[in-house]
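Action item from last week, closing it out:
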Amino acid sequence: QVQLVESGGGSVQPGGSLRLSCTASTNITAIIWMGWHRQAPGKQREMVATISNHDVKVHVNSIQGRFTISRDIAKNTIYLEMKDLKFEDTAVYYCMAWINQNYWGQGTQVTVSA
């Protein structure tokens, strides 16, 4: 079992920034993939960015150049640095970890509004 605890969501204006954090209950170097997904109201959950245990990073096209995934192994934590936030980035953001199965955090709300 892997527990994931997210933090860092909130409300910002367009163009603003936020940093999400996700701390795992286990050594993240043992986790094959970790990442961030999001689910906007009325839409399916979608992948945003992932990072492997070998530090390979994938960012989806819609957030390229604006969001950056990173990790701190010593803290068993991954981050999602979000800049130039847009209205369409409003969603619940979920941390995910994969070790033979998917584990999910409880989600953190990000709201972009004027």
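Closing note: The longest strand covers residues 91-98.
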